[in-house]
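Hello,

I think I submitted the oxa(dethia)-CoA job twice by accident. Can you confirm which output corresponds to this input? Input:
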Amino acid sequence: MSTITAAITAVGSYVPDFVLSNAVLEQMVDTNDEWITTRTGIKERRLLKEPGKGTSYLAIKAAQNLIEKNNIDPLTIDLIIMATATPDMPVASTGVYVASQIGAVNAFAFDLSAACSSFLYGMSTASAYIQSGRYKKVLLIGADKMSSIIDYTDRATCIIFGDGGGAVLFEPNTEGLGLQDEFLRSDGIGREYLKIDAGGSILPASKDTVENGQHFVFQDGKTVFKYAVSGMADVSEKIMQRNNLTHDDINWLVAHQANRRIIDATAQRMGLDESKVLINIQRYGNTTSATLPLLLSDYESQLKKGDNLIFAAFGGGFTWGAIYLKWAYNKQ
Ligand code: UT7
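Support: Only one job matched these inputs. Its output is below.
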């Protein structure tokens, strides 16, 4: 009996039309294009501006893009995992609504929340369901409307984040392609450095919390940066070592797009040439749960069957990790 592995067999994505450029941010806060570009690598980000539309809108669009491009019958989807840090509502799962809206009425769905590592953890979860043999089609969506939790008067955070969504389909594979290994970590020490103080069970919403701006993201950027650089590089090196991979064996680094300098440091520790590093941070900024699938979508035509991909992410919590995956198809 051959072993079942979990392979990515389809990719889709969506970003809103509205572009927030560095030039426009210069008019909003005390910043400049040169600072943002050299410190982060970001040139512009997309924002979902239409009132009344939340993360589910981004997720539905990304899922529909995947379904249409690949002629998937939504009725055959068994499970939808919605990776997000910005659910439509605190209660009532965003994934459940998305499943209904895309016609995946035979699927069950749930949300998975691990800040910027949500999609990476989702890859692990989706693969485990496939490898168990219980489900044949698992749709993993990563989407975030970061603009809903960003203070556009705070230059420390508003220059970084953007909105977007991406989706991948996991299916069983008997050729040994798909997820090979994972090394996932978390550490509660990070909770104080990247968080939203209010709106949860510790500090429910009140007039004061709104007036104090406690519903916006707070980030101690310097500290998060320090942990992110060592965390992402450590796990990437670790997954290479325990799978006996050298830099020559790796075709692509698919790293969370939070800061170009963090990605470069990780690639450097892995000994990877710049040409193997997927990058789109300049166009979207940090879209939290959407960065990894947006990279796959943008680079899909260059990924070849059998290619070795290392995924790496670091996020609030702290949460971080790396995944080694063999790509399963050539895009026609
Ligand atoms: O995705 C989840 C995980 N998140 C991350 O991985 C993000 C990690 N952190 C970062 O990417 C970086 O720390 C930031 C991009 C957030 C900040 O970059 P930095 O190089 O760490 O800057 P800094 O906070 O050390 O600030 C350096 C200087 C300060 O001025 P002084 O004290 O040197 O006079 C800041 O006040 O830059 C100033 N500054 C800015 N200047 C222009 C901070 N933000 C800005 C800004 N424009 N937007």
